[in-house]
Write a structure and sequence with these properties.
mainly alpha; 6 helices; about 65% helix
Length: about 90
């Protein structure tokens, strides 16, 4: 059974959690280019390296990031972590 890629939707949810922080800021903090981030948010297709960088930056598993969806409990936890790091 094939699972559906939810990366694009999950990135939009994460951006909402960050109060619509600019793509440039998010790209800088995830150590990927802004254009790569834009492409990921449009298509949900990225390299494995890019997906790992994003997952690590947001302290979530790669499986959750790609195949989510990210739940309210996870977003609350992520928001708490991100606030500690002044995101």
């Amino acid at each position: 059974m094939e699972r559906e890629n939810h990366l694009a939707q999950n990135l939009m949810e994460i951006r909402k959690m960050l109060h619509y922080k600019s793509l440039a800021e998010i790209a800088n903090e995830t150590q990927i280019s802004k254009s790569t981030l834009q492409d990921a948010m449009k298509s949900g297709n990225v390299t494995l390296d890019t997906a790992i960088r994003i997952a690590n930056a947001f302290h979530i598993s790669l499986d959750t990031l790609v195949f989510g969806p990210i739940t309210a409990d996870q977003t609350d936890s992520m928001c708490s972590i991100l606030r500690k790091f002044s995101w």
